[in-house]
Amino acid sequence: MQLYQEQNLRIFNSLTGKKEIFKPINEGHIGMYVCGPTVYSNVHLGNCRTFMSFDMIFRYLRHLGYKVRYVRNITDAGHLVDDADEGEDKIAKKARLEKIEPMEVVQRYTVDFHHILDQFNFLPPSIEPTATGHIIEQLGIIDKILEKGYAYEVNGSVYFDVGKFNKEHEYGKLSGRKLEDMIANTRELTAQGEKKAPQDFALWKKAEPQHIMCWPSPWGDGFPGWHLECTTMSTKYLGETFDIHGGGMDLKFPHHECEIAQAEASNGQSPVNYWMHANMLTMNGRKMAKSTGNNILPGEILSGENDILSKPFTASVIRFFMMQAHYTSILDLSNDALLASEKGYHRLMDAIGNLKDLQTTEVSDFNIPEWRQKCYDAMNDDFNTPILIAHLFEGVKHINLIKEGKEKITVSDKALLQQTINDFVFNVLGLEQKTEGNQDSNKLQGVVELLIQLRNEARSNRDFATSDKIRDRLSAMGIQLKDGKDGTTFSLS
Ligand code: AMP
Ligand code: ZN
Fold first, then answer.
1. Is 312 helix (H, G, I), strand (E, B) or coil?
2. Of the candidates 331, 342, 431, which has an alpha carbon nearest to the alpha carbon of residue 49?
3. Which of 59, 166, 405, 481 is most buried, taking the most CB atoms under 10 A from its CB?
4. How far is the CA of 146 from the centre of ligand 1 (A)?
């Protein structure tokens, strides 16, 4: 019996605007696709929030016993500076400005992205495909859409015919827009260029002579449109209809709307059963964004090198701060909010630290099974992490009362309490019980001093093989020993 058979998970489906009982297509298995980053600059904390929301969702689905295939792509081509199919490719532009290869840009920021996710204790996705690795498949989907008559070619580019699609399907159903209103709003504003209508979007763009990131196609050299890669990679790895598709709220339109149109046009069926959208991180009440400069990088928070916050904060504190808001709510970053989260995080970790030493008795004053189920109920209600955290603090209150001898707990309840904390705090929320940086360096100092002492003993026993080994191994780790007249000291390189 798996946990998902006992727990009734409900998910807010952006497509229907309702919370629905979650039922995967294949029992026990889930296919989940989340739009990944465009790797032309460092991810800011806002991007991290969306990915962290889906990391928590991935973690809970796995905890329930589902086998999840989680696909999160890397956009390394096709995302233009202007969402309306105009302007330069974001990556090519960066490459031009820095006078480096586009793939150097991609490599640099993909490495940075992974490094940040590691620091924040993310689980890796099952597959992390790239747009440039799936050009052939993207060409295949364009062919299918052309064949079905929902696209047209003009001067080496191929555009999706939104008007034609809307006659037989419903363009705008995810974002709640009507094509007629979109047409009325854009008639005077948008230059449509070679498209038949401004709402049409590029499946393939002809490359201008100076465009370096391009591939051969039946319509000449060019590159794929941004929306196409996600349709291609999600359906390739998860099937023509799969369970969950996620991304930030700002991707609902046009990106996800266009994904639905492409998939329905090529396969004749709706691609996704549950659309999930994570809300934005704001700073000073404004959306955190690369383009406006209203953003902070994760590294700037961890190091404290920024003009916005009064001190550095650890990755777990930032994660805890994020988890204190529901993923569909806007969350505003401020110094006070982070300080409050830091306090809460330490209160939680202190209680967890005391847990193993709690004395047990014959009776319990706190109903642990009921409390454990409340934690599940919170998560089953569309991954409600703030309510879960409120229940965890209920647990903290009881741990403290038991420690002070004001309440009692049995051996089996203590084990269940420990298990629940492990499940929800560490596995589901992904928090880590890390010591502060200065405690870590105290420990490092103690260990190195011990090794210096052992080396001195080896030298006085004329065991130079051991003493040299200690010095060389430390040196290889970047810890240099220096022998002086007052003894041996060390430095970090
Ligand atoms: P991008 O690299 O711009 O394609 O964005 C990657 C992901 O970050 C997308 O899912 C966006 O919706 C999301 N995102 C961008 N800005 C924010 C923000 N301020 N808060 C939360 N998510 C964001
Ligand atoms: Zn996408």
1. coil
2. 331
3. 59
4. 31
